Predict the 3D structure of the following.
Amino acid sequence: MENNKSYIKIDNVSMWYPVKSGIKLFAKEKQWVKAVDKVSLEMEEGEVLGVIGESGCGKSTLGRILARLENPTDGDVYIDNVSTGELMKRNSKEFRRLVQIVFQNPYDSFTPRDTIENILMRPLKIHSIAGSDEEKRRICIETLESGGLHPGEDIMKRYPHELSGGQLQRISILRAMLLNPKFIIADEPVSMLDVSVRADIINMLLNLSKEKNAAVVFISHDISLTRYISDKIAVMYLGRIVEYGESDEIIKNPKHPYTQALISNCGSIDPDEIMDRISIVGEPPTPINPGPGCYFAPRCFKANKECLIKYPAAYDLGNGHYAACDRLNNE
Amino acid sequence: SEPASAQAPAEEKVLIVRAIGDPMSFNPDTLPDDNNYPIVQNIFNRLVKLDTSKQIIPDLASKWEVSEDGKDITFYLREDAKWHDGNKVTSKDIKYTFDTIKANETYYMSTRLGIVDSIETPDDYTVVFKMNKADVSFIADLGWYGTFILPEHLFNNGQKWEDNPASKNPVGSGPFKFSEFKQGESITLVPNKDYHEGSPKLDKLIFSIIPDDATAVQALINGDIDMFENVPAGNVEELKADGNIRLALNEYPSPMRIIFNLKDKAVQDVNLRKAIATAINKEEISQKIYAGVQKPEYNMYPSLIKWASNSEETSPHFNIEEAKKILEDAGYKKDANGFYVTGLTLDVFEGSGYPEAAKLIEATLAQAGIDIEVQVHEYNAWSEKVGTRRDFMLEMQGGFMGPDPAALAKRFGTGQASNYADYSSAEFDALCEQGAATGDQAKRAEYYKKAQALLVKDLPYVPIVTFAGYDANRSDYINLPIDGTGKWGWAEFTYTDLAAN
Amino acid sequence: MERVLELKDFNVTYVNKYKKVYAVKNANLQIQKGDSLGIVGESGSGKSTLAMALLRLLPEKSTEISGTANFIGKDITKLSKTELQKMRWKELAVVFQKSMNSLSPVHRIGTQIEDIYRVHHPDASREEIFKRIEYLLQLVNLSGRVYNLYPHELSGGMLQRVSIAISLMHNPKLLILDEATTALDVVTQGQILDEILKMEKELDMTRIMITHDMSVVSTSCNKVAIMYAGEFMEIGYVKDVLKNPKHPYTKGLLSSFPSLKGEKSKLEAIDGFLPDLSKLYDGCIFAPRCQSAMDKCFKAKPRKLETDEGFLLNCHLYGGEN
Amino acid sequence: MKRYIGKRLLTGLLTIIIVFAINFIIIRLAPGDPIKTLMGKETDDPVLKAALEHKYGLDKPLPTQFVMYLKTALTGDLGTSIIYNRPVTDMIGEKLGATILLVLTAAILSLFIGTLMGIMAARREGSFIDVAFSGISYVLNSMPSFWLGLMLIIVFSSRLNLLPTYGMTNARANYTGMKYILDVIVHMILPVGTLLLIEIPIYFRIAKSSVLQVTNEDFIVTFRATGMNEKKIFNKYIFRNAILPTITIFGISLAYLITGVALIEIVFAWPGTGRLVLTAITQRDYPTLMGIYLVMSVSIAVVMMIVDIVYAVFDPRIRY
Amino acid sequence: MKLDVKNIFKKIREFIAKDIQLKCGFYGIILLLLVVIFASGLASHNPYDFGPDILNRIGQNGHLLGTNNMGQDIYSMIIYGTRTSLKVAVISALISAAIGTLVGGIAGYFGKNVDQFVSEIINIFMMLPTFFLILLIIALFGNSIVNVMIVIGLTTWPSNAKLMRAQALSLRERTFVKAGTAMGESRLQILFKYIIPNGIFPVIANTTVGMSNAILTEAGLSFLGLGDPNVISWGQMIYSGKAYITSAWWISTFAGLAIVITVIIFYLLGDGLNHVLNPKRIGRGGA
Ligand SMILES: Nc1ncnc2c1ncn2[C@@H]1O[C@H](COP(=O)(O)OP(=O)(O)OP(=O)(O)O)[C@@H](O)[C@H]1O
Ligand SMILES: Nc1ncnc2c1ncn2[C@@H]1O[C@H](COP(=O)(O)OP(=O)(O)OP(=O)(O)O)[C@@H](O)[C@H]1O
Ligand SMILES: [Mg+2]
Ligand SMILES: [Mg+2]
């Protein structure tokens, strides 16, 4: 990879979990859940990348690896051409300042035994940002109010359970922002929230990332929302990226059969829109030893015998649009 | 009302005696075992035995004589004694028994038999112990632990007694035959109809194991057992009030005493020891802890053995002021807390009311300005600390000092193993030696009383209370061991019978 | 048209030691045979409570139910225990959201299905049951294999299908799906929705679909009821309500959904949050969050505009004088 | 499953060895030794002492003794009691039966009674029965067992004259056959009763709380919604799910009983292993002590394993 | 930080109001603590005084609950015995809870090999015949109350460790723990700031049961004559009163009663805490 332009480079990252099973006593081969399998992606500064895919396809695992909450079994992630593994080893605190993650469940993102004040002060303390406690407190209040949480003083005194989900998710994002990260991973940040408050959170996240020019990975299974937010979209299936490109391009012109099925199943709120669901047969797949062919092949409406033999390479469809499907050529 | 369980077939006379634990072995000579002692006394005989007042009375030996120089003791055996299997008991059995004990260092009496040079059997019913030293107290020791006569024809098969099958299935010459042993439950004996003193009256004698005193008391009250040796002092009043139960006092020459470790600087001053002795309220201990059953003991040798005990010169009586005065006179000064002496410790073991007694002592000593800390140990730990390591200042112990005053030499003679105080007085040793060398009781009393006077002067120990306890039994039984002073052994049931009514 | 369910001034209140929670207030609703009604509302708006109350599954000690709920001619709220047991599942069945926990973890699925079947057909033979179940499982695209499995051996999607199959066991007149597809991913959800629509045609069923996802309603229902804080805000045909929402709340809700393929218009949120349901409010319950709220909105309840078909609009903007 | 059992056996073995080593060390570091008991309280004869120490090998270094002991123990020989000069295996064998009889009877009865009470209380939560049962269980749970035992003796044996005071059989009458069995049963009433009173609350609490918990599970709502009657829901579904914690507790409390029964054995003069341990401790009878610890650890390990397996049978979610 | 005492009291009151058992247990503990603090004021006599009144009946010579054979005032002994019992209960339970929390927390949070290893150790300790071990150690190494407390603490921690481990296992998957890691907290910081404070409640509830057991164990040891003679404890009062159980029943009966009441208080507290802190019990939708 000689390209030095991109700010973040995900290079051939894999995460395989061993499967515990005592059912087969004499199983020679170890069984693996290939939660993330050979994922490579690149991102610019300030770019928002959406990652979509069905439940269990490895989105969160990828997110955890990006935030280095787990070490990948293979491959590495580079920020500004420095390996994050290396960064963690050298100075884990510096890395933590650089990369922040926002989680799906705001109700569970804060230790219930502490006030918001204590919670927000923690990162400042750990990273010795600002001098006195007074100053730290001032920064926290300012941050809260900048995120639309008024009055900051009052919010600071509360316990997490005394706040609504929307408020908590804001605080969760603001807490991540306190450290001025350059890379934010948002793992389904609004999926637990009511639709009526979602928009605010999304808008706030986008604004903040614009302000700080931070790159954002936005993980979601809500396709329309992802399109709304992201510049680029990556579609995952069983741990692999099957399609990647400009978000409008992906939504309006999906190439990979799985993406096509996914988008066709995504209902619109417009009752007039004619739904033409591509139905996928078969039971949902398991990520335990999926190979050797295309992982989607067993359920694919376009698959033929060859698809079952070898995992397809990613085809460049121009304009930065890639899809990993051997049937593309035949169309 | 008679409880259901007591309604045994009327014609069977079964006496149930409470036992605390399992006997270690049914061979009565290998170990000194409190649990099998009362049992084997009914299965085996000795040359002589002790009665309930702890005096020597004849057993297999109908009479005995000591030679002029005190070195030969001749026992004349009764000729009607038979083993349970019908063989006669002869002098050979006696020689065999003691020769074997002497040859095995691990048998209890082995060391003591060191003074016996040889045992001769001029005929079937005469035994002569030839000793290298005059010691009349040896006769008394023959009535104590580990001296039961065993049948040579059953034991002499080349096997050691421990492993000998004959030890597991005891055949003796005593009033009862061994019948059954259920470990943890009971030992059953049946009468030996051919016993040389006549057949026992009981149909069965059962020693039933009940570890807990409180349960045993209830069992006695309920008639589940018939006899309970040494009931807890706390239950005495209640049991006395029970018409079905008869209580009789059983006293032992085993006073509770405090021993000073004379090797330890802290108690080397005799004035301090005197002050301590003066500040112990024996009366209070006797009343509060033993309900008056165990009496205050002032004599240095147990007053129970009257002929040998010196009641003239005794340890001091309780007097706090006197104690303080002794200290003042000896030059002790009060510290800020009002103590003349601090830093003393008293090691006692758990049980028998000792810790409680120690606490009372601690309290009265404090009044006299002597600060003492009581340390309570589990028995084995105590024994290790006090007995083996001799690591103590003051300790409290009991232990048999009878039946012969020769025990004084064992407990306080220079260099003796049981001399915890490490007392050493040439004069005392000489007096003891003289006492042991003569058979004349009046003379012996004189020597031992003098020795006691020495102990009063030096105070290596302070006697506190006598050891005594009530034997409780169902009142419909007569001729229990407790009734046999001068007549039968202290745990012997040969004559026990239901009262005729 | 045959009326399957008619709610009149239906109220459900949770009562405990410290407070009352007014979870459903003065609900009026009509469902005709063959209808598929979507009930949409945010979390905590009382959707599940309504469903549970219709099945009389709420603990009697801690809930108060008033009003009437006529279900094919009988008032559910007044049924006796035995009548109730007869009605349940045979005529009125439900699929719960948490299908993971909706079957006993220590019994085989087949055993549980048999037991449920025998509730209404005590003498049914195993073959008969098996045949029926196999048919139903096929309907939801599952193999008969699951019959001998334990719940934990199935994935969430499969369990959800099992739950749906079980609910169809006796061809109920009314099926309530309480967030039955929410936990599933879009592909599976789409599949199940397809199957439900298919079955509906086959079995001639009436359906209530509880969800907070507008797109589910738009693709699978003909009528929709918008619920907010225990009250219905707007009820009407899907094509009318979603295309041309009237109630400010409905409008706000719809503008929170970005369009999939259309223009990327700015997402709007509704400020504030759900009111405390343990208090009773004088005015319109939505007024504090409503952008077009007027003075009277805070003072008086809007008059409900109702039509014969059971359509409703609960807003001062459209109501006449009270 | 096989592998699981294998693993359990291995850890069980490891446990036993460790338990063993701990005990060995603790016992040997402790002051005092069996020689004192053998010599009797009345003598301190050093010659006798040395001779006895030599005889029992207590003069050898500790590690040597441990290895020697382990070696013989592995061959199934627990050695010979120093105090009683009998094979430890025999001594334990004779008394194990009595303890198991007591423990199992009490455990099984309390399991049934306690669980039943718990279920009754849970089904009528807040009713008089619930309050009464809960209150009783609190009080019983708080009583020192020996105290309770003594009270039962005073009431039922001394005052009411209904039951024998102590022991396992009537010492006076040497019953055989059916009469013997009846005799043992009569003697068991009080000690088993004491254990029952102590154990019932444990099962009561666990049964009550797990029934209540399962009753609130979502799947119970499903069954209600199908119109299934409450009886069937309870008997088939709540019960089977709620019984699971009880199985675990049964194992734990059985293990607890095996050791905790000692006090009861003393109070009722019951000839069991618990008492054997206590005597062995005071007498420092090393081989016996080690032997009983071994037997106890093994039986606890076995009980735990059986319980785990039974649990797996009842709960299909458990996979090994 | 300023401590708002009033507020804390209010919070406690609200907290305990949730459950009647918790309420009883809480006030019971307060009562016991008051007894401990004001023991010398409450006692009518010095319980260490061996007065001349032997075996006085209830009320005789101003002895509220009579005296024992040593002339000690039973009522005063009971009052002072509270100290011993609470001390034994609290200290041994604290030792047990501290070890259990730490071991369990480390096992559960660190996971993997650490967990496997520590879990095996926990299992091994679970299988130790605890009572006999306690007995052995006390019998062998001296029966001071300090030893009793330490030994009970050292032998009863495995149940706490199991609870804490289970808690830690689930807590480590909780979002706020992951968020903490992402924030840059070190592993030990996570353990002490997130895992332990959030997972300790079952341990606390269990600890109250442990306290009850400690009191009962102390009594059991006393029954075997292994109590500490230098302190006044209820267990020893029962032990020494055993011989008088039918003649002077008051010696041991009131001590027994005191044990029962105290243990019940701890049980109530534990059950109450369990109820309040275990959200499962609070109706989860439906019946
Ligand atoms: N620690 C782990 N050990 C073993 N398997 C794991 C682990 N974490 C995740 N997995 C497995 O890896 C796969 C991917 O999980 P992941 O949570 O990343 O999916 P996801 O796309 O985020 O799904 P969702 O949309 O449900 O959040 C799943 O099959 C999951 O079971
Ligand atoms: N048992 C109960 N006691 C008291 N209040 C309750 C109870 N169950 C539910 N509630 C309250 O009733 C209201 C309605 O709850 P309900 O579960 O019906 O909402 P919902 O619309 O189904 O929400 P969701 O979309 O989250 O499932 C909520 O405010 C809830 O907190
Ligand atoms: Mg995820
Ligand atoms: Mg709901």
User: Anything to note?
Assistant: Chain E has one domain: 5-44+68-276.
